[in-house]
Amino acid sequence: MDDLSLAADFPQATREQWLKLVEGVLKGGDFETKLVSRSHDGIAIQPLYPKAEGSTPVAREQAGRWRVSQRADHPDPAKANELALLDLEGGADALTLVTRKAPAARGFGVQINSVDDLDRTLKGVMLDLIHLRMDAGGHGRQMAALVLALAERRGHKLSDLSLDLGLDPLSAMAAMGRMSASWEAMAQRMGDTLAHLTDQGFAGRAFLADGRVYHEAGASEAQELAAVLATGLSYLRGLEAAGHSLDAARRSLAFLLVADADEFLTVAKLRALRRLWARVEQACGIEPRPIRLHAETAWRMTTRRDPWVNMLRTTVAAFSAGIGGADAITVLPFTAPLGLPDAFARRVARNTQLILLDESNLARVADPAAGAGGFEALTDALCEKAWGLFREIEREGGILESLKGETLQGRIATVRAQREKAVATRREPITGTSEFPNINEADVTVLMSVPAATENDGPAPQAAARSGETSFASLVQMAADGATLPQLAMTAAGANVVAIAPLPSVRTAEPFERLRDISDAYRARTGERPKVFLANLGSIADFTARATFTKNFFEAGGVEAIMNDGLTDQDSLQKAFTDSKAKISCICSTDEIYRLHAPATARTLHRAGSKLIFLAGRPGEDQEELTGAGITTFIFTGCDTLKILAEALDKACAEP
């Protein structure tokens, strides 16, 4: 408001004035503890930031709208084609073709064994009018050959196509635990591939530095950035060793980061990558230029329980990716963790982006976060932290050696354990799963349920190492002549196969979902859910807060809470518990009423047959008396929810 004449009539507010007001609200509470949170990188996130001065906006590869990309991952090429055409007709302008056994396929993926299969998958798709990104995991080079064979069949010039071939052997190895040849041989293959593509006028991106495998393993934002930087640098080195200039190498490379429901850190992460890679380019002696940056919403944050909430998560993630400067965004459909999404779920994923673009107009500003104190501070902090972790990987010999030595896996595992603890104690709540669960939720529709085994088993076993390398040009010709994917894959076997401990793919909601599965199995066996009886003491005003907390707490594990309007005497309490047919109970009221009535209530519940007796609240000074009366566990904000729910289910589901 500096341009308004009224602004001069009012004194400028200062941070000191704000802090004084905050002190009054905190009433002696510690500012750092109450108002400052920390990311899993240890970065402090302040409640208020000043305006950033002298910031430099980050530039996307192309100004204007980002690409709206939809996954094509139905196993049947014809069905995948039908869904893809619906997406393109509905407003998408890019496809991500996920093939069978790719880590991102989640047990599905298009079954493409030949150029004919690829042709069927993309029937009616005008390749010169859309962007196509391949996601083929360990079969990336063979699938790229099929793409080039299809382009030749259709009479396309590669210079007219917007393609990302997605070749990323290091990230595929990190996910699947195996690389088909030594890194030296792999780098030579990459160089040969790029040489052929250059000769054919290819104008897209051949290689990809993908952060998904690290994010899904639980990595922090800085760890994901560091791994992507190290991967990209390894590709630069490999391509340079194969005879390509650094400029040609960097022009062949694209990046992919994960966008999750943490808006501020997602925006900062995407902005940080552009700055960090520019720093790598400067260190290599080349003038920085804008990178091609893809974003995909996080698999890690999706839930099977109350999956409708996934719509909210992906909306925040897509918003953050757009604000952060992604060139193309893929939104995972909200039913993805339950199975193969149908046309409705795909439509919602697509429209999430279209609304952000066409109604919210997010793409009309090049870098909306530039100059915003919070975003700039987090971007700077992530740059500093990620650069330090990147240098640590480099000191270990690069991303490959770090993975072979399992040091990178170990650092990520440490952060994953921190996340698991935060989820277990609900310090990081999962809406619809660990908080505000709906145990009576209706099923959602998917085209296919998740297969029983969805592990990333990677490519089929390879033949013995061949005496000579098969050039990429030969692969393309083989594909054009009708060679099948297994036949093309036979050329990949090399000496000195690299094997590592693969990174796991973990959704944060899985521990709570396993508890809900136990509850579902009990209901299928008995016709009802396991129950917990709430012994509500006093008036409604006395017990409502803790009874609501308790209901939310137990139903996160699938244990149905049996409510009442308050119990006034021990006889009615005992009868109410017996009538509820519950096997466990929880006392709910105020601390004052606990001191007067909780011990007697616990003894009554014990006589009535309650196998476990909980109390909602911290025990305080009365713990010894309360436990002596039969109370087994206290539940409160910050307790180990998963552990307590597992114990509760064990007793609540026990046979009489």
Structural description of this entry:
- The chain contains 24 helices and 19 strands.
- It is an alpha/beta fold and about 650 residues long.
- The protein folds into 2 domains: about 65-425 and about 465-495, TIM Barrel; about 510-650, Cobalamin-binding domain (Rossmann fold), CATH 3.40.50.
- The strands form 5 sheets. An 8-stranded parallel β-barrel has the order 3-4-5-6-8-9-10-11, surrounded by 8 helices. Strands 16-15-17-18-19 form a 5-stranded parallel sheet, sandwiched between helices. A two-stranded antiparallel sheet has the order 1-2.
- β18, α23 and β19 (about 635) form a beta-alpha-beta unit.
- α3 runs parallel beside α4 (about 115-120), α5 (about 140-155) crosses α17 (about 470-480) and α11 packs across α14.
- It is globular and about 90 Å long.
- The relative contact order is 0.10.
What gross morphology would you assign? globular
The second-level CATH architecture of the largest domain is Alpha-Beta Barrel
Tally of individual helices: 24
CATH superfamily of the largest domain: Methylmalonyl-CoA mutase
Q: Per DSSP, what share of the residues sits in E-state strands of 2 or more residues?
A: 5-15%
Task: Provide the spatial order of strands within the biggest beta sheet.
Answer: 3-4-5-6-8-9-10-11
Number of domains: 2
CATH third-tier fold name of the largest domain? TIM Barrel
- Report the structural category: alpha/beta
Cα separation of the termini = 70 Å
Overall pLDDT score:
93
Q: What is the percent of helical residues? A: 40-55%
The biggest sheet amounts to: 8 strands, parallel, barrel
DSSP summary, beta strand count: 19
**Low-pLDDT regions:** 455-465
**Rg (CA only):** 28 Å
Task: Kindly provide the name of the CATH class of the largest domain.
Answer: Alpha Beta
Name the assembly state: single chain
